């Protein structure tokens, strides 16, 4: 039986000492095993919805989970000023935990959604050496690009629906039942399509609802208009600093915008092909499609920022899952998704946001609709997911401060957040994971792909924002890293892609 342990690590910020709660699955004391550190999304969710990643420990890869400051079992700080909640704070918390666990010289990093943004930022801004792989799952490269993607998703709903959602955000009436109902539609399409949601996912969202301090500070109170402290952040201009092998995971319906819907100079060039690669006596083929000019340097959410700004010596590989590189791009994608809903639905959402009534039952119901479409499509949601969301409901300080009232109305401190300009700092091999119906749309993931030198991008076809619940099938086989490759299709599914990346990708 695989050993599990939990504990707390003291974390000093100025004169204050906070507690970081962590869970270890596997044996991190065995120096022959490189641990995978998990950065959960939000901001303001909890680690619970990421617990399906415990499966990775069955393949002799120890896994480290922890709750970011302001969420879950870690210290909460409801009275903190908005300026307290910054990506740098969470990168410092990560560095502190790595040092506490004595794994800072040799670890892999996986960030999902906001966690992927932070992972890339971290990898590009820390000295290289300690981290070996980077996995970016459903993560945007820029907060502004995230916002663009969200709005592009919104625009694919019926016009009246999109108009209603934006009107609620403009009127600041996102607490209305109409907006809540609209959000529920959007979530069901682009966050998680499972019904019900897995319990771990429900737990994470519940925790964020209980204390939305972080999310509200960093993202703001809205879904399609990011006004929190994260709004200016981008990793795009720093992504080429990431040197470790990187896997990017994306989903066809993720809130991160679909690459094929982008109108960008990158689309001026497109080619595909197959590459032979040998594993022992066997020869396999990797199909790839390349968009844009790979030689043009100008074309090139937590894990991403961490990797891009800290370039930590112990980080070996980076996984960015369903994460954006820019909040502006995220919002664009979310708006596009929201616009697919009926016009009345969108109008209701926008009216609540404009009227400041995002706490209304109507707005919350609409938010849930959106989540059930683009965050998790399972019915009911998994218990772990409910726990994470429930934690936000109990203390929404972080979420509301940094994001705002919802995923498609980002008015928090993260509104202008982007790491697009520092992604070149990520030198680790990086795996990107995304989904087409994810709330993090391809436009917000694309900068990771164009700026990180060693990157693999996998887009899952049957998931939204939480493929670890929707498309978890594990099939460990062979994998290979080439400088830039995009794979669209079922591939090895979520955990298979991660395990192949961690075990078979050379530095």
Automatic annotation (TrEMBL):
Any one Gene Ontology BP term: proteolysis
Gene Ontology MF terms: peptidase activity
SUPFAM superfamilies assigned: alpha/beta-Hydrolases
Highest rank taxon of the organism: Eukaryota
Domain named AB hydrolase-1: residues: 35-258
Pfam families: Abhydrolase_1
Entry keywords, A to Z: Hydrolase
Entry GO terms, CC: membrane
Similarity comment: Belongs to the peptidase S33 family.
NCBIfam families recorded: pro_imino_pep_2 (TIGR01250)
PANTHER family, sorted: HYDROLASE, PUTATIVE (AFU_ORTHOLOGUE AFUA_2G14860)-RELATED, MONOACYLGLYCEROL LIPASE
Protein name per Swiss-Prot or TrEMBL: AB hydrolase-1 domain-containing protein
